[in-house]
Amino acid sequence: MWRDRFIVRRLEDQGTTQRFLRSPSRSGLKAAIPVAVSECTPASWRKPRRLLWIGLLGLCLAPVLAYGHIGTQNVVLESSQPPNPVRVIIRPPGVVPGLADIDVRVLTNGVRRVTVLPVHWRAGLAGAPPPDLARPVPGDNELYHAQLWLMARGAYSVHVKVETAHGTNTVIVPVNSLATTRLGMTNNLVGVLIGLGLLLFALGISIVGAAVRESILKPGVTASPRRVWWGRASVGIAGVLLALALERGHAWWKAEDADYRHNGLHQPVACQGVVVNEGNQRLLRINIQTNEGRASWSSLVPDHGKLMHVFLMREPQLDVLAHLHPARRSRVQFEAVLPPMPAGDYRLYADVTHETAFSQTLTTLAQVPSIPVPPGSPAGSGVAADPDDSWFQGRPVEGGNESQMGGGWIMKWDRPPSLGVRRETTLRFQVLQPDGGLARLEPYVGMLGHAAIRREDGSVFTHLHPAGSVSLAAQQVFQIRAGDHAPKRITPEMMEKYCLPPTGDSLQQPLSFPYEFPQPGRYLIWVQVKAAGQARTGVFAGTVENSSK
Fold first, then answer.
1. CATH number of the domain at 269-385, please?
2. From the CA atom positions of the chain, what is the Rg in Å?
3. pLDDT value at position 206?
4. Which of 58, 304, 366, 481 could form a disulfide with 54 if both were Cys (CB 3.0 to 4.6 A apart)?
């Protein structure tokens, strides 16, 4: 049956193994869904048939850190694209294949139809299934909900099409599909399965005994004592054989489970951050500890002109934030000039996006030494700092809604009454210039502003934009590939076409960020803007409650 339902075909494409999984037609699924071990998918899917079983029936494992943002795979996108502004929240499954939850909030009236369509980066629109219909959520006239099967690993684009009386538009939401957990079974389910197993075991050996004892007898003839004893003996032999088969099956399952733990689950790509002194400069060198088999670091695409966005946060004080944009020195090495930030241990977060639209956040620890540069030292290493690099030192005022940004500049947070887990939240801020008036904001790294959100213990980190938590570079890659003649390679020139800085009304305050906190706890929020030609940072603290209501 499985051979009839699932046919695996292996190809070699530029040294990268691909697999295509054919599945029976069903709502939201169609044949020829690609299961790709892409150049930026760290762990290979060696046995799709096995992973289907484990993904659907597996046991439980605590989530691992790593993927688009630390601590959560959820993505939020807010689009003001006319005629139908929308906010989309996608919660990918922890297993692959698995069901993704999609919420679409339509910020206009006259909705006629909302559809969602998952498109794997290898398949494109031509290989995608038909779209699914998003249903209205009772009690909320703006909210629509759908569930989609993500059948393969790697980067997906979810095409959200909204049809209203004002017109129709489609937004593309990039999302990573990764196996990060093993499904758990409740004690009740375990008890039911054990009971059914014992019943099947008893039925199996009883069938063997009945077959040996009575299968060749004529109707109405009673079995002889000798045949009765043969039946009993066969029951014992069948029981031993079935027990041995169960033991071997248990050993096989443990081996498969161990292999899934090591090879099936997504493994974070390791990196190393080292600070060195060269001349009168301190350089941060980031070394990617990977190989072409796990991730192709020759295929990165720029996000608003930067191949890598790095955030450094001093631990445990969390009183220093640096936002840097390292230059690439080799395939697996990046380098940035450190600003005059104080010494200490820093947690490093590095955002990158691959040409396949797969985005990930790398993390490591880096130690910034307190070695002063002696007077009269050489002029420097010749490495130029990125003009958009910035850093900030300061702690938030506990429970405060204002943050001093230096030079009389103030940022205000329109703090909501409460913050809850898995609740749609809009974080709104205003920047005041020294005379108390609203500041005129300028584009900063192609955006109106940036926010770095971190749970105090470091288990959650998100680089946020006014458009949400999605990788804008990944969205641009999918926009390029959505055309009729999708290019094989993505060039910086193609990315620049979709990398337009905000202008006019889009630069108006207040500055807002849509978000959904994934865990309860205390969070720090750094918000960065550019005003009067200078990058400025405000920092706030807030506690997220466990209840999402």
1. 2.60.40.1220
2. 28
3. 92
4. 58
